Amino acid sequence: MTNEKLHRQNRVVLIILILLICCGLGIYQYFNYALRPVDPSANQMLSVKIPQGATDHQVGVILKKKRLVRSSFVCDYYLQTHKESGVKAGTFKLKASYSTPQIVSLLQESRESH
């Protein structure tokens, strides 16, 4: 009886561990996907205005509305975890072929981007 109970508990723990690992890998894959360019073949420059005092969340929403990032949430998270100097206010020229890390780098670089 005790041995059978122990085996059942071990199976439950193993199933929970497998589910946690699968969820973690899924989240990791989603973030990698969301950081890639929206349209790798895009050549058109889009003008994006970042207002003075915009939060990371607001910047993510602006970029998502312009279809420059796949996910405003992932962009917001990336901005928060990769702060060098913060996003500058101003008008930026960006392409949908830029990845989220490239866009964030340009937004932190200067007022007028490439």
From TrEMBL:
The keyword Membrane applies. Pfam families: YceG. Keywords: Cell membrane, Cell wall biogenesis/degradation, Lyase, Membrane, Transmembrane, Transmembrane helix. The keyword Lyase applies. It comes from the Bacteria. InterPro entries: MLTG-like (IPR003770). The chain crosses the membrane at residues 12-31. PANTHER family: ENDOLYTIC MUREIN TRANSGLYCOSYLASE (PTHR30518:SF2). This is Endolytic transglycosylase MltG. It comes from Limosilactobacillus portuensis.
